[in-house]
Amino acid sequence: MDWKRLIQFVLTGTSWEQYAILLVRVSIGLFFAISGGNKLFVAGGTKPVYETLVKAKVPFPQQTAYFVSGVEFVGGSLVTVGFLSSPACAALMIDMIVATLTTAISTMPKGLSPLKWLDDFLYLPEVLYVLFFIWLICAGPGRFSVDYWLAGQLPR
Prior knowledge:
single chain, 156 residues, mainly alpha, 8 helices, flat
């Protein structure tokens, strides 16, 4: 057994980063595209969003429900194929930050110790989505994306 290679692998990982980016980008993109599509194109799909926005006292809940659903559908579709990935990730990240501040935090139990509150906060799916979007913005959409192909077509 080549111990040196094994130790290097354990300490530094692999060169498969592009596949990890592809997997995360397509998975999270499809999740948001399907979620937004179900809200927009299925009868009554925006009703739960509307009710949540009314409960959270968000202004213009009807228009906001369609806007948020559209951001999820369009942004998720763009992230899936890797086209305008960073702006799409930024829009979805803002969507998730607003969702966290307006609804997700209110579902957390009151009177928790700071450590338990942080534990529950970091367990929220919206927080995980924000972290994925930050990573995708910083790492870029990867080699297997429309953005990468377009960047290669630019004159040098």
